[in-house]
Amino acid sequence: MCRNIKILFNFEPPVTEDEVHAAALQFVRKITGFSKPSKANEVTFLAAVDQITNVSRLLLHTLETAAPPKNREEEAAKARARSVERFGARPQGTSRPGAAE
User: Fold this and answer.
1) CA atoms in the 13 A half-sphere facing the CB of 78
2) Cβ contact 2:26 at 8 Å
3) Which pLDDT tens digit goes with each residue over 42-65?
């Protein structure tokens, strides 16, 4: 589950609200063990996601660095290369379930 949490700080273009929310959702899923909470836990689960989203947004907007922003496309290409090195190339035209083509 946590492999979907990406580094969000110091990128150009900057992080989006959707990316911060997705990372918070993955974090809450990981620590609760729920991919989807029961009705009894849904309100608490969603409140935790909202709170973590807010704290994460504040953190990302207040961090400082002297490093130049990273390019999203270059970082994605590096991640793909690491994946190929680690797992080997996928046959052409296939992808993991749920992956955008």
Assistant:
1) 6
2) yes
3) 999 999 999 999 999 999 999 999
Model pLDDT for residues 4-26, shown as the tens digit of each residue: 678 899 999 899 999 999 999 99
Torsion-angle region of 24 (φ positive above 0: left; ψ -120 to 50: alpha; else: beta): alpha
Question: pTM for this structure?
Answer: 0.75
- Nearest C-alpha neighbor of 65 from the set 25, 1, 7, 24: 7
Q: Which residue has the tokens 């899923």?
A: 29
Q: At what angle do helices 39-62 and 17-32 cross, to 10 degrees?
A: 130
Amino acid at 78: K
Closest of 12, 8, 11, 10 to residue 21, by C-alpha:
8
